[in-house]
Every structure is written in structure tokens, then in C-alpha cells.
Amino acid sequence: MTTSALKTAGVPDTPGSPDPAAPAPPSRLRRELRAVHALVHRDLLRLSTQRTHTALMLIQPVLYLFILGGGLAALIPNSTLGVGYQTYLFPGVLMMTVQTPAIMVGIRLITDRQSGYLRELLMAPVRRSTLLLGSCAGGTTVAAVQGAVLLALAGAVGLPYDPLLLALLLAGMVLASFTITALSLALAVTLGRPEVFHMLLGLVMMPLLFLSGGFFPLESLPGWARSLAALNPLAYGVDLLRRGITLRVPDQAAVAGLEWFGRQPPLLLEAAALLATGTAALLWAAHRFNRPE
Amino acid sequence: MQPRAGDDAPTQATLPTAARTGPHAAESAPEPAYAISTRGLVKSYPGPDGTTTHAVRGLDLDVGQGETFAFLGPNGAGKSTTIALLCALARPTAGRATVAGADVLGEPDQVRRQVGMLFQHSALDTDLTAEQNLHIHARLYGMSRRDARRRATETLEAVGLTDRRRSPVRTLSGGMRRRLELARGLLHAPRILFLDEPTTGLDPHARAQVWEHLRALRDRQGTTLFVTTHYLEEAENCDRLAIIDGGRLVAQGTPFALKDAIGDDRVVLRTSDDPSAHQVVRRTAPPGTVTALDTEGISLRVPNGSSWIPRLCAALEAHGIPVRSASATPPTLDDVFFHHTGRSIHTARPAPTPTTTQPTATTATTEGGP
């Protein structure tokens, strides 16, 4: 943080004023943006201070990729998937990586409420929806950072370190992280109690992962399961990443994933669906969160 | 407890005249006379089975600029709810409140910018360092990075935590955390600082330290302090205090005025034969005096308690009852609290069960034994 002072040095922002609420306070929008930034900053600080925790969160998907992926690669012939199993698994593993920190945001909102930290946040002279937006931005950023770390393994699964490919994958992860974070927040403000939240997570997490198409092709599933998958945000995330790979490395194109009425939806429409779901969830969460006591 | 003339005098005297009760009187004034002013403030929560819980029932409160104001009451009296209302964290069910010249309902952001808050339960991010906690908070309040860093340094120094600024909060002691929270509450230089039980759970040394910082703050910056507490000695040191019980304000005034309203000193006598002495004391004391007999001895409330001791001793000696000890103590805030609520703040129980007014023969005999 020591270098960041330079960035704002030129901003006319009543420097040296002992009272931030002095006659010319920063504009409303700037204050709200600063609050959002404060929450993102908090999440990034936590990420950097809790190194062990972060490392452990990253180890799990790596284990999946190399142990599960390595073991099954020998059993599954490339012809069924179009690519080697580890390459096939990679988008699913990336989604696993971003999903954990994204979901943590909802859990943290609940623990913050219980610890009293949320009250402290609510004291800030900003809109409540700003605080929620800040939490969402923070969760998305942390998830994307962790996902970006895992992109380093692209070479190990036979993908080239093509900047555009990496950018596409990162963009897909940011979008998916946003939607999962927003859904997690919507759930957190609706449920309120951590036990219920954890129970619900335990109940839906495995089906969501298995219906994401990250571990095996959705087309091998029965029709009803495929319909469920079409409602699964993780499936959209995985599909976006996989199609990103197909776009840049056609020889690593895996079999098709999501289908709407038997046809593969356009890539941008898929992304738009994910974005719309996340936005709707965030709006709903903000609506619930805005209700004062 | 007998009703006395002047009982309510200090309570009434501190209430303002109707001049300021107009709906926009406070907003239009550039420097409002009161830092905090409430009229008929009510907060009710829907309880179980369709019932309604009244946490605060019609509060009329006035806190002057720069005043250190204590809000005294037992647990569950409505102190924290009142603070939440005054900080615009909760919406009042009825009534209105003006804090730092802004209406809590109409301009909650304006209120929050002017007030700082120290919550009853520590609310710090324990994984971050002291400095990081302050920085995040300052940014939440819309400060630039430069201001945030400067204020963090200043406030850390003010609470004497400069050398621990890079320590993760989880490694700080309870007293240090409290001081860090104080620093956080001061970051945006609030005109009013709310402190909800600021010293609960701290050892005497840490408590003294927190108060030292609070006093320095008041003296240097003229910050209005609104402190809830159930420590009488803390309330004693405040400029004014209000006693709240069951969501209602039962008394309001300076510690001196409130104690003075009780007026009478408490005289305690211990003799070799307390029950007999009790009879003598009852005859000697002015008519209408409340006397009580318990394990502590004989106690009574009289004006100018010390001047009564020789007279009571003489009367007892005349009856052949030697006096072992005698003391006269002016009224304490606990007496004030007892006077208004019918119970001691230390033994605050759901049902009023006064102890000193119901002497029992058994305690008297065991005490009066050889």
C-alpha cells in the first residue's frame, strides 16, 4: 500500500484537512467507490495474510487435476472426449478453484454479522448496497486471483501458454466468480443462519459440481439431469472455459457441453445468461440487505 | 422510600423548553445547541407469537455539545438499542432524534459521518494488522488513501499503539483491541463518539487507560461522548447521566444533582445489640425516617448524616447499648439508581427485590450474637 499514495497524490481531495466531513467532502460517487475499494482491499489483504489458507484452497483442485485426472486418463480413451482426460478436466478444476472463495463470501457475510463486524461496516456513511457490491467485488477478485494462479498449470495439461487463451480463460473465471459470489451473497442475506447455509451447501455442492460437465460430458447423462445442468451456473462457467479453449486451440476441442433444446447456445448468449443471473442475484441480495432493522 | 419535595427537580430542570421541539429547529441551526436530542423515541420489535417487544419506550434525551454523557442502566434496559437508533443503524418505530444536527431518519448518512462508534463487542478483523484495520475503515468512510494513512498514524499514536501497528489484531490484548477500536472510531474525527460499554471485560488498568484516552479526547477536541455503562464510578465521572430502565428514562441530570435529589446521607450503626438499638434509633431519628436492620447493622437515611451520629450514639449509650462503629455516607449513584428503579444496579434482577427495606429477625440475631 505504500506506493499507492502516488496514484492519488494529484487528486484534489482536501489533503491535510483534519475533518473529512469538512465543507467540500468528496463526491457521493467517489465515497461509494472508495467503500467498494475498501472491501476489495480487505479481501486481498486477507488473501495475502492467510497464506496457508490460500495454499490449502489451491491444493485441492491441483490434487483433483493430477490424482483424479491422472488416474482416469488411463481409463478414458481420448476419442470419447475429443481430448485427453486431464485437458478435459482442466476447465472443471478451474471452476472448482474459483467456486470455493466465491462461496466463502456468503459465509463471511454471515460470520461478519455474527461477530459484529457487519454492524461496524453498516456504520459507514455509504449505501448498504454499496457494501454488498464491495463484498461481491472482493469475492470475485479473490476468486479470479486464485484461478489465475491455477492457470499456470495449463502447460501440464497440454495447453499452450497463449496470452489470448489465458485472457479468455481468466475472463470466463471472472464472470463465473461474479455469478457464484452474487448467488452466495443472495443466499447469505436470505438465510441468515450459518448452519442452514452450510447444510444447503453440503446438499447442493456435489450435484452442482457433477452436473457442471467439468468431470464428465453432460451428454452421457440422462435427459432430466441434462435439464438440471442447463440451470447450473457452474455448468455455464465450465462450458465457457471449454469453449474458450476450443476457440484458441481447435485441436484440443472437447465434446460439446451445455445444450438448450438440443442445440448448443451461442457463446455470447451463454456468457450473457451467466452475467444476468449474477446481476439478478446481486440485485435481489441488495434489495434484501437494504431493509434496515 | 418516601416521596420528597424536589425529587424530580433535577430531572425536570435538565429537560429543555419547547423552543427546540419544532420539526426542523435543529436542521436549520448552523450549530445546534444539543449534540443529541430525541423526542418520544420508540423502538419496538415484533416478538414471538405476535407480541411486541418494546425496547425503548418514549425517550426524551438532550446531550449538550462537548458533554460527556453517561447512559446508565442494567442489561436489557434498552441502552444498546438507543445507541443503534442514534447512529441510524436502526429505524425508530416512533418519535424523532437529531444527532449532530441531522435527523436520523431523513439524513442517516449525514449522522453516520459525524458520529463514531465503539460497539459493545469487539468488531475487528483479527486476521489483519492494527494499521490495516484502520486503513480499511478510513477508506469505508470515503477518505483518500493519503488521508487514510495519515489519520491511521495519528489515531494509533493517540491511543498509544504505534509500536503495535503491524501486529495482527489477534495478537493484541483485550485492552489494546479496545484502544484500537477507539482509534478506529476516531479516524473520521467524529463530533460525537458513542461508546457501548467501552470497558466491559477489561482489567482495571486497561479500563483506566481507556478512560484516560477518552478524557484527553474530550479536552483536546471537544468531542461529545455518549457512554453506556453499568459501572457507577464511570458514570460518576461524566458531566451528566441518564438512568434508563425498562426502555424508559427514569432520571437525567448531573451526578451531583441526582445524588443531591436523594439528599439524605446513609448512616450505618453497628452495636452489640442491633435489634434493641434499632428500636432506640427509630425513636431518636426524625419522624418519617426510613430505618432498616440487616446484617450490616442499622441503617437509616437522614439529612446531614454525620451530625446525627453523636446524637444517636448518646441515645444508645443512655440505653446501655455500646456502639461499635458508626458511619455516614453521602448518597451514591447506586442509591440514586435504587431510588428510581427500586433495585441496586449491581444486583439488577428482573423482579425488584429490595434488600435493605425488609430486615429479618434471623439475620439480626445471628449478627447480634456474641
TrEMBL record, chain A:
Signal peptide: none annotated. It is a multi-pass membrane protein. The chain crosses the membrane at residues 55-76, 88-110, 131-158, 164-189, 196-218, 267-286. Residues 15-26 have a biased composition (Pro residues). Keywords: Antibiotic resistance, Cell membrane, Membrane, Transmembrane, Transmembrane helix, Transport. InterPro entries: ABC2_TM (IPR013525), ABC2_TM_bact-type (IPR047817), ABC_2_transport (IPR000412), Nod_factor_ABC_transporter (IPR051784). It is found in: Cell membrane; Membrane. One of its GO terms (biological process) is response to antibiotic. It comes from the Bacteria. Belongs to the ABC-2 integral membrane protein family. PANTHER family: NODULATION PROTEIN J. This is Transport permease protein.
Automatic annotation (TrEMBL), chain B:
It comes from the Bacteria. InterPro entries: AAA+_ATPase (IPR003593), ABC_transporter-like_ATP-bd (IPR003439), ABC_transporter-like_CS (IPR017871), DrrA (IPR005894), DrrA1/2-like_C (IPR025302), P-loop_NTPase (IPR027417). Its EC number is 3.6.3.-. It is an enzyme of class 3 (hydrolase). Keywords: ATP-binding, Hydrolase, Nucleotide-binding, Transport. Residues 347-370 have a biased composition (Low complexity). Residues 1-32, 345-370 are annotated as: Disordered. It is a peripheral membrane protein. The keyword Hydrolase applies. It is found in: Cell membrane. Signal peptide: none annotated. Belongs to the ABC transporter superfamily. Drug exporter-1 (DrugE1) (TC 3.A.1.105) family. This is Daunorubicin/doxorubicin resistance ATP-binding protein DrrA. It comes from Streptomyces lavendulae subsp. lavendulae. The lineage of its organism: Bacteria, Bacillati, Actinomycetota, Actinomycetes, Kitasatosporales.
